[in-house]
Amino acid sequence: MTKDNNQSAQMMEEPYMSQEKITETLEKNYMPYAMSVIVSRAIPEIDGFKPAHRKLLYTMYKMGLLNGRRTKSANVVGQTMKLNPHGDQAIYDTMVRMTRGNGALLYPYVDSKGNFGKQFSRDMQCAAPRYTEVALEPFCREIFSGIEKDTVDMVDNYDGTLQEPWLLPVTFPSILVNANQGIAVGMASNICSFNLGEVCRATVAFIKDGTADLLKWMPAPDFSGGAFLIYDEDQMRQIFDKGRGSFKLRARYNYDKKNHLIEVTEIPYTTTIEQIIDDIAKLVKNGKIKEISDVRDETDLKGLKITIDLKRQADPEQLMQKLYAQTNLESSFACNFNVLVNGTPRVLGVRGLIAEWLVFRRQCVRREINFDLANKQNRLHLLNGLASILLDIDKAIRIIRETDTDADVIPNLCAGFNIDEVQAEYVAEIKLRNLNREYILKRTADIKKLKQEIRELKKKLKDPSLIDADIIEKLEYVAETYGEPRRTELIQAEKVEVLTEEDMIEDFNLKVFLTEEGYFKKLALTSLRSAGELKTKDGDQIVQELEGTNRMEIIFLTDQQNAYKAFLHEFEDQKPSDLGAYLPVELEMEEDEQVLYMLLPGDDYKGSLLFAFENGKVARVPLDSYQTKTRRRRLINAYSDRSPLRGVICLKPDEDGNTDDIEQDCFLVSDSKAVLLASDLLNEKTTRTTQGVQVLSGKKRGKISVFRPATDVRIEDIEYYRIRKIPSVGYYLKEKTLAFRQIGLGTD
Q1: Which of 50, 62, 492, 605 is most buried, most CB within 10 Å of its CB?
Q2: Which helix (H) or strand (E) is 28 found in, with range?
Q3: Cis peptide before 15 (omega within 30 of 0)
Q4: Is 513 helix (H, G, I), strand (E, B) or coil?
Q5: What does the angle CA 735 – CA 738 – CA 742 come to, to the nearest 5 degrees?
Q6: Burial class (CB within 10 angstroms; exposed 0-12, middle 13-18, buried 19+) of 466
Q7: Dihedral through CA 431, CA 435, CA 440, CA 441, nearest 10?
Q8: Each residue of 173-231: pLDDT tens digit?
Q9: Which residues make beta-bridge pairs with 491?
Q10: Taking 60 as the threshold, does the pLDDT of residue 338 lie above it?
Q11: CA-based angle 538:544:547, to the nearest 5?
Q12: What residues does CATH 3.90.199.10 cover in the chain?
């Protein structure tokens, strides 16, 4: 066989697939990716920047864009690709967020000209990079300060052709000054922004006293979009100490009394105008907010504006409280101060971030001092060599002139004046016209000053307090030069009106109807005023109706001894022409279960329920026995199951809540006999399942067919049927009322 055939045969014998443990596969393939995302993409370093931001800003710095002139964004994007091996659109999106025009940062790094979209808008897109222009803000001088003096490590770019800084030598804790969000693999970071002046002053206080209460200088975050921050000191201390926690931001608005409209001018940093308008429109569509006639976006060059037109009777303050509770006009910011410190992810509080930044900044200052010290020492060394020839300039000229070869000039100068090669090289490079006493005296005059500066620099390196003094001086300069007034206003949490779930429920007078087949209709009294006949299903009829308000609780009693509890606001508002809600479905009742009776217990559950059973017994149960501490949907054993239920009457206090006149007369019919029963003849039983007491007696007492309040019965001379004690044989119905036996279950 040929060599190729042998190789083919060998490949056929080898398996195409190999087995390995899933943990090993993940470790080899997924873990490097996860670490790359965490360390090199999504989580910011202690200088406050992610790699993409740092590469972009450094590129602009090297392009000379710190001097105020602008260049096309496309030019910056193209140059950045030398450091950042990503697509141009990804790089441009990174730059957009750092511009003043976009408004995402409290202190933007990029001066911009053109349309860069808006942070508060989901749909407002930025222009293409060929149309927009950018430069670095003067503020960026503080993030590049000393970068040319070896203050930070420089590393190779992805192809080794350029060098870039590992970190930027920021002169203030920039990690706290601008908002920063990132989602890595298995972890995330969400850092809010703080006011620059407050951060600098808090850092100065921390340097002077590591136990200082930072809340005194920087009480809470500050956002580019302004708005209100609901301030809770305990929550804020948790964020400052642990780096985790949340707080609420609330929109700012103005009420235009003349035009009866609300203008929202500042919204929470975490939302957009489109989301807010969608939230409001959804509430109006679902009928949860009825005070609004229109909502629109009127944002223009002057700034953000959401206009809400109100209906005539709307209360703007009350409406805004509802909107705060149900829309993104009030939203939470969840803090997660996860940063990379020396390449390791750490969740730090504000105090911890300032402490780690201070360690980093001290290193930068120390490296800058070492750089200056080395330069001054080198300069002093050269000037000392220059000073040595001051004693005999002619000798120096003669040595150079009489030297035969160029290579011997430096060694001859070294030997003639007892100087080293570096000094000799410096002397040899001086122009012939400068080899005069005046020139040399001017240069060597700096020796004394240099020696003093070197002593001071060495002193700083030995005394950390002097380094801290430099840091403090720079922080005070930054706060004074670039600090701005706080944009986000603080309002104390205890002064904020908090709506409960009940407050958000619209309350209005209504009437509810129950039909024989179990349909339930809820109608506002305003819709009933002009309504005609209420529509019901063919063959169905209304058997009970009650008046109440939308926030009331309602109880439905069924033929399977169950009581279903609900709130009227849980049922949709209906029109007179609607059939209504089918209760077996709405209440998730058992199969073949039917609603017999409904009642409104009221907030205090005062009163009693009278149950009349077919066997002639009537039970009186206190209404509060149906009250529960939790919002239970169904109560079993709501009444006795010993005999079929034939009627229910609810005895309630009067409108003033008095229980003295809670008793009332009840009319009870059994075959051809009837009884007018005073409810005070019945004693309350503590249990819901009581069988009651016998009301009708005698061998032929019959079965109860009707049980109604006496006020609902139109019978002449009704007092004729009154009984004084129970049980009683009752009275025969008079001839003209015998038809009454056909009446079924009555209402209250």
Answers
A1: 50
A2: none
A3: no
A4: strand
A5: 170
A6: middle
A7: -140
A8: 999 999 888 887 878 899 999 999 999 999 999 999 999 999 999 999 999 999 999 99
A9: 230
A10: yes
A11: 125
A12: 43-170
Give CA–CA dist 669/461, Å, rounded: 107
Q: For CATH 3.30.1360.40, list the domain ranges present in the chain.
A: 252-328
For 130, counting Cβ atoms within 10 Å of its Cβ (0-12 exposed, 13-18 middle, 19+ buried), the class is: exposed
Measured CA to CA, the distance from residue 677 to residue 706 in angstroms comes to: 13
Residues of the chain with CATH 2.120.10.90: 509-742
Q: Just list the catalytic residues.
A: 131
pLDDT digits (tens, 9 = 90+) for 275-322: 999 999 999 988 888 889 999 999 998 899 999 999 988 889 989 999
Strand partners, 549: 509
CATH T-level fold of 374-475? Topoisomerase; domain 3 (1.10.268)
Report how many helices (DSSP H) and strands (DSSP E) the chain contains, helices first: 20, 33
Separation of alpha carbons 72 and 82, rounded Å: 17
Query: Do residues 211 and 354 lie in contact, with contact meaning Cβ atoms separated by under 8 Å?
Result: no
Q: Is it the case that residue 732 has pLDDT exceeding 90?
A: no
509-742 — its CATH code?
2.120.10.90
In terms of DSSP bridges, do strands 731-732 and 673-678 run parallel, antiparallel, or are they unpaired?
antiparallel
Residue 456 C-beta-side C-alpha neighbours within 13 Å: 9
Instruction: Give CA–CA dist 600/568, Å, rounded.
Output: 10
Could you give the CA distance from residue 23 to residue 30 in angstroms, rounded to a whole number?
10
Closest CA to 729 of 693, 694, 698: 698
User: Which helix (H) or strand (E) element contains residue 255?
Assistant: strand 252-256
Cα–Cα distance for residue pair 209/280, rounded to 1 Å: 49
CB atoms within 10 A of CB 376: 18
Residue 713 one-letter amino acid: V
Is the pTM higher than 0.85? The answer reads no
Domain span(s) for CATH 1.10.268.10 in the chain: 374-475
Quote the CA–CA distance of 556 and 574 in Å, as a whole number: 19
CATH class of 252-328: alpha beta
SS3 content of the chain, % helix, strand, coil (to 5): 35, 20, 40
Q: CA–CA separation, 61 vs 140, rounded Å?
A: 9
Structure tokens at 455: 């002593």
Is the pLDDT at 736 greater than 90? The verdict is no
CATH topology of domain 43-170: Topoisomerase II; domain 5 (3.90.199)
